[in-house]
Write a structure and sequence with these properties.
This protein is α+β, with helices and mostly antiparallel strands and 427 residues long. Among the domains are: 104 residues, no CATH class; 83 residues, no CATH class. 42% of the residues lie in helices and 21% in strands. The strands form two sheets. Strands 1, 2, 3, 4, 5, 6, 9, 10, 11 and 12 form a ten-stranded mixed β-sheet that branches. α2 packs across α12, α5 packs parallel to α12 and α7 runs parallel beside α8.
Amino acid sequence: MPTWIVTHSEFLCNFLTPLWVGFTPAQLRHALNVSEALLVCTARHKTLAELTRWLRVEHADEYALADFFRVSPWSAEAVRAAILRAVLQLIAAIQAKTHWRLLFVSVDDSLCCKDVATHKLEAVSLHFDHVRQRRQQGEYTNASRYVAVHLRLGPVHFLLSWRLYLKRQQVKALHRQRRERGLPTLAYHSLPNLVQQMLAELAPQLPRGCTVYVLFDAWYASHRLFKSIRAHGWHWICAAKANRRLDTYALAEWWQHLGHQPIERVTLRSSKGSRTYATRHRVGRLHRYPDPVKAVFSKRNRRDTRPAYFLCSDTRLSVRCILKYYSFRWQAEVDNFFLKERLGLADYCLQSCEAITRWPALVFAAYAFLQFQRVRPLLDDPKATLPPLGDVLADHQRWHGRQMLLHIARLVRQGLSDAELLAELMP
């Protein structure tokens, strides 16, 4: 039996209502209905029709919700900016309480996969997919793509910001369609440019006095992004491709040239256990980047023929610290799991780009609420133990289960007959 939503959580209303500045009362009701249903609904696909079946509150109508995304005049960008400000204010309050000084900002992108026959949704196109088992056409998957920025401060994790990425071919095709309909055109931004914009927006709002490391994979490893990060006074750690040149040799050639250097064994621990890597390192210079960098060459064992390569702008860091800090990017995968599997980030059925960007605005708002509920004990006790995010979501769902039982008990006490009770609960 589903847990019906008969009232909105006070904690959710207090957290989300200030973020939706300028919303009309009707828009606010729709936004709360969608956010609450995303958190409580356990169906595999969170379509608007499915979300509406879980709502037993006023003004819960799937057609009204569809119009809320398609034609209602509200800005997803304003919601995103409001969530960013609220989260960074919370981060600053926690940092002032705990005095943690290391901030890790991770950059990652992810695919919201759709059926291969989907072609009417404007943000959906074929994107390269490194996950082999879900590829639909060769090495590509029909999906929309978003870029996200994650922050880690001690045990505190937050998803800060996100942007929808459209390929150059998509933007060109949409220009023609939008001109015919009299709509404003879209601007194309490459993935590195999107990341630079997001980091520039983030920079003035971060807590002062913290050392910041930006973590990203080889897709974003460009000299322009390197220089942009250093201009903010931050350091960066990234993976690199084998053909990138360090001094006079490609990274793939340096292991043999460093044969005189003793192999350093580094053990990293995670929730799945520990693993030891054989590593060597070298300080050198990259093409078109003026400052020295530290390169780490890592093998799973001495006979591994495909080493992993990492670059770091902070040459003072040890090899173990570089690998440990880079491993913090795993939290981005956890966030992607919750967003897509538990909150339905990829379940939108909306056609225009404007409507599609509004769906993740509410999904990310609901996820920010879960993260806030998880770290709230730190505001009272800096040494508090934080629960897993799944437990926070389960507690929220159990609260709604209790409210549903209390609602049924009130109806019974009012003397409703069986037929009236069924008509009230199952219209």
